[in-house]
Design a protein that fits this description.
There is one protein chain. With about 725 residues, the protein is mainly β. It has a domain at about 1-225: Sandwich (Immunoglobulin-like), CATH 2.60.40.1190. Helix content is about 5%, strand content about 55%. The protein is built from 4 helices and 42 strands. The strands form 4 sheets. It has a 24-stranded antiparallel beta barrel. Strands 1, 4, 7, 8, 9, 10, 13, 14 and 15 form a 9-stranded mixed β-sheet that branches. Strands 2, 3, 5, 6, 11 and 12 form a 6-stranded mixed β-sheet that branches.
């Protein structure tokens, strides 16, 4: 592994990198002379004198062709705010699709336009802002050209939309204090715009982007030039909260009240400090239950606001897992496989903080973070103090992250993670390298070591490492890697999918666009993946193949078929269903499952998706059926339901597990929402429900009312019930 890292570093020094060259498009920044009303109409005189960004180019479906509908973007600014005006022309206004009002809406079901800005012009990192014709908005942070994406980031900004017979309009107002900005004057930013037409599944860009990439490919963005005399204010934000909760658990009733705050301060133009005191996460939505039994750890996503800010900076390694490329194509889902390890190591996994081992909330006393950049180096430092709760001792988590930019799109980083609790400590340190020698090739490597572990650690190596190469030119998709996670690699602040293994993986896929069937068939995507796992020391553990064929129609509907040959050597029993005593005994197993998955067009108000898996399962048989339906009555009302039936028959017994998940969403306006989630799992025989009311009464200032309920299979048996009310208020200076 040491040789791989050294070779990669020498390659980084030797290669010239991606020459950004002259940007394809430039747009001058024009200062507004009068006041702009953010109403989505673009009728002030200033908008008429602003230069126009037009001439969008398709990436889908007809790469390189002019966009089928014209889009015009204008930019203005004053001392405090960047204004963006969009005229999304449409020859058939009745064909404009807008299915949602909720914040951070599903971009695969509606028309939208988006802008990404790169204030430091580093061609790597930016802020993305999108809106659909109904006025629903979403925003995110993008790092290292999309290698890490913070989709839950929320900034202070405003947007309004309107329509007429020529199409629809969007008018943005983004305060400069929302962004980290350089101290130079004048400033030149990276910038690009994207428009999505859901009815045609068309993506077009102002500065062209190949179809295999997205708007966050900032090395391909244009520039916004001539921003002068812009102010960042005091760059201080304080967000206090008040919360109250009433809980019933068994026959005990409790009522509590709490208060705390979050603070954000811009230390320098590129460096921001965050402080949280008595942090509360009562408004966070419940996790969605996972389908199928697995021998390995399951990775649940982070949803808590404090840990999401600049979270991409704390990403260690390549930022993707090998399974994502084969499973992210429309309609794919890894064929129902749950016995392979797809997730990669996370050196710091923030869900370890503030949650017990069984997923219960543990109070956080305070946390502090410094994140941003100093010159060409990304810096992240985090300290969180967790209180004692029940059997969970008080603990302090500390993280230090440095990432040095190399060439145009590469970086070399180090990371240190520590957890201290009850006189014990666990420390892990790592080094990672990500190179992009050409536009389509990425080389990655990392190595980490557990420095302090428990007093009697498991036998084996205390290190983890991985190296690989990925390729994607829009037609061919490929990736290969080799990784090791030692049996004694203990990382109590991270996510370790499985220890004591050596893993070799590869993926190869080819995208075909047949011209003879282009009226109805857009793409054929055959792909094959392979995973070979060895126990530490080289003895065989498991081997998996993934073979699939995906058809994507021009309306977005998909059909996927494939199979998954498996070979495993179990050294300990695998418990499939503990309640029914269904167990796979140790031994060597060879079996294959086959699957089919379908999905209808998401442009319609009603769409369906389903997959069925059938075949061998260790020394028995398994049938898995999963079906879902989503319905949208209008932009205000939508709902979805997913049902799965997992039927396993083994010599030791049989089990049938049912899971049901239902969601309902009411958007009274773009600031007032009611969301419901109901889940049932027959293996635990529990019903879980979560009802959340959210009123955004001013930017990033909310009122939440959250009702949660957990019941046994007999719905009269209440396992736990709570009602929480939380009010936040953002004060920006």
């Amino acid at each position: 592994m040491r040789q791989v890292v050294c070779l990669s570093f020498l390659l980084a020094a030797a290669l010239p990198g991606i020459a950004s060259g002259e940007p394809a498009r430039t747009l001058p920044a024009i200062r507004a002379e009068g006041r702009l009303a953010i109403d989505g109409r673009l009728d002030e005189p200033d908008w008429q004198r602003a230069p126009v960004a037009a001439g969008f180019t398709q990436s889908e479906p007809d790469a390189g062709a002019p966009a089928s509908e014209q889009t015009e973007v204008r930019i203005l600014y004053d001392a405090e705010t960047l204004y963006i005006g969009v005229h999304a022309r449409h020859r058939n206004p009745a064909g404009i699709i807008a299915n949602e009002l909720r914040r951070d809406f599903d971009g695969t079901s509606t028309d939208w336009v988006a802008v990404i800005v790169d204030p430091f012009l580093d061609r790597r990192n930016g802020y993305q802002f999108g809106v659909n014709p109904a006025g629903a908005s979403w925003d995110s942070q993008k790092f290292n050209e999309g290698r890490e994406r913070n989709l839950s980031w929320d900034g202070v900004w405003e947007v309004r939309t309107s329509r007429d017979t020529s199409g629809w309009y969007a008018e943005y107002a983004i305060p400069f204090r929302t962004l980290q900005l350089p101290a130079s004057d004048p400033q030149t930013w990276g910038i690009n715009f994207q428009r999505h037409l859901q009815g045609r599944l068309e993506n077009s860009y102002w500065s062209p982007v190949p179809r295999q990439w997205a708007l966050d490919r900032l090395s391909l963005a244009g520039t916004l030039e001539g921003l002068q005399g812009i102010g960042r204010g005091a760059n201080l934000r304080v967000k206090p909260y008040l919360a109250a909760r009433a809980t019933r658990s068994g026959r005990a009733d409790t009522a509590t009240g709490d208060a705390g705050f979050d603070l954000k301060y811009g230390i320098t133009p590129g460096l921001t400090a965050d402080l949280t005191v008595n942090t509360d996460f009562s408004q966070v939505e419940a996790d969605v239950q996972q389908v199928g039994a697995t021998r390995f750890s399951v990775l649940f996503p982070e949803k808590r606001e404090f840990f999401l800010e600049n979270s991409g900076l704390f990403q260690f390694g390549p930022g993707t897992d090998r399974g994502s490329q084969i499973s992210s194509a429309p309609g794919t889902s890894a064929g129902g496989r749950d016995n392979s390890v797809l997730n990669d190591l996370a050196l710091f996994f923030s869900r370890r903080v503030g949650l017990s081992r069984d997923g219960e909330s543990v109070p956080i006393a305070a946390g502090a973070r410094v994140s941003g950049r100093v010159g060409g180096t990304g810096l992240g430092a985090l300290v969180v103090q967790q209180r004692e709760a029940g059997d969970e001792p008080a603990a302090r988590y500390s993280v230090l992250r440095l990432r040095r930019h190399l060439m145009a799109a590469s970086d070399l980083g180090v990371m240190f993670v520590e957890k201290r609790s009850a006189g014990a400590q666990n420390r892990v340190a790592g080094l990672d390298l990500n190179l992009r020698p050409t536009r389509d090739v990425t080389v990655f490597a990392y190595a980490a070591r557990a420095i302090d572990v428990e007093s009697h650690p498991p036998a084996g190596r205390q290190m983890a490492a991985r190296a690989g190469l990925a390729f994607n030119d829009g037609r061919w998709v490929g990736e290969g890697s080799y990784g090791v996670i030692g049996a004694a690699f203990v990382d109590e602040a991270g996510f370790v999918p499985r220890a004591g293994i050596e893993r070799t993986q590869f993926l190869l896929g080819r995208r075909f666009r047949p011209s003879g069937t282009s009226r109805w068939l857009r793409e054929i995507y055959p792909a094959v993946g392979f995973t070979d796992v060895r126990q530490e020391g080289g003895s065989f553990d498991s081997r998996y193949w993934e073979r699939r064929l995906v058809f994507t129609l021009q309306n977005g509907a998909t059909l996927e078929v494939g199979d998954n040959p498996n070979e495993e050597d179990l050294v300990v029993p695998f418990v499939v269903n503990r309640a029914r005593a269904v167990v796979v005994p140790p031994g060597r197993y060879v079996f294959t499952d086959r699957f089919i998955a379908i999905g209808s067009s998401r442009a319609r108000r009603l769409f369906l998706d389903a997959r069925a898996v059938s075949g061998g399962y260790y020394d028995g048989h398994r049938n898995l059926l999963q079906a879902g339906v989503t319905a949208r009555a209008n932009v205000h009302l939508s709902g979805s339901a997913t049902y799965s039936r997992d039927d396993v028959e083994l010599p030791s017994g049989s089990s049938v597990t049912h899971q049901l998940t239902a969601r309902g969403n009411i958007g009274f306006s773009s600031r007032l929402f009611l969301n419901g989630l109901v889940q049932y799992d027959s293996s635990s025989r529990q019903w879980n429900s979560n009802l959340r009311f959210n009123f955004l009464y001013r930017p990033l200032s909310d009122v939440f009312v959250v009702f949660s309920d957990r019941r046994a299979e007999r719905v009269t048996d209440i396992g736990g019930r709570s009602v929480a009310i939380k009010v936040t208020r953002l004060l920006a200076f």
